[in-house]
Amino acid sequence: MKQIALIFALLSGMAVAQPGPADLIANIPGRTTVSLDGTWNAIVDPYETGLRAKFYENAKAKDKSDLVEYNFDTAGTLKVPCDWNTQRESLMFYENPVWYQRYFSYHKRAKTRVFVYVGAAHYQSREFGGSALYGKHGDEQTRFSEEYQAGLYRHQLASLRKTASLAGMSPWVLMDFRSPRRFLPGVQDCHNRKGLVSDKGQKKQAFYVLQKYYEELK
Prior knowledge:
It is built from 2 helices and 9 strands. By secondary structure, the chain is of the alpha+beta class. It has 2 domains: 2-118, no CATH class; 146-217, no CATH class.
């Protein structure tokens, strides 16, 4: 049976079969494993549209009128485990998401559970956030608006509340900063706009979303 593996910025992984339940996966070398190291299809997502476009569904266009604006099968490839920065010259200074996908065959045995084990971390570790220009407004679908960034934080924080093994969390980043490779005129203007506070010290809507989250943890 063919199954699909599709995750963010995976550095190393393997499918693990286990006969019984467990809170944490231990003794990996002593388990039956299928290594997923090797070549993965990869889509570079500089504008962070992958979640809203549902890249994780790996959808296929049924006909010419079916609008699916991504295709893992024809995307470039990257090696895992390895950083992407040294595999392509164009990604040397790239900081945004990359979506990885790979098909693999696995026949699940009766009365077993299957886990994906990420060798680079023993807990969830990923960057989240979204760019917003202070003073730009719209709805949660309006790219680079304060509402867009605040909506991303609300959705992500709701997910983190359900993560029992969460050890800590910090936003990326607290304040906008100079970044010569961020060219978008009228928005980035050579700045990274993922900050919760503008480079002039103005607090964006997402700042108050995160502030509320921290206060509720007390």
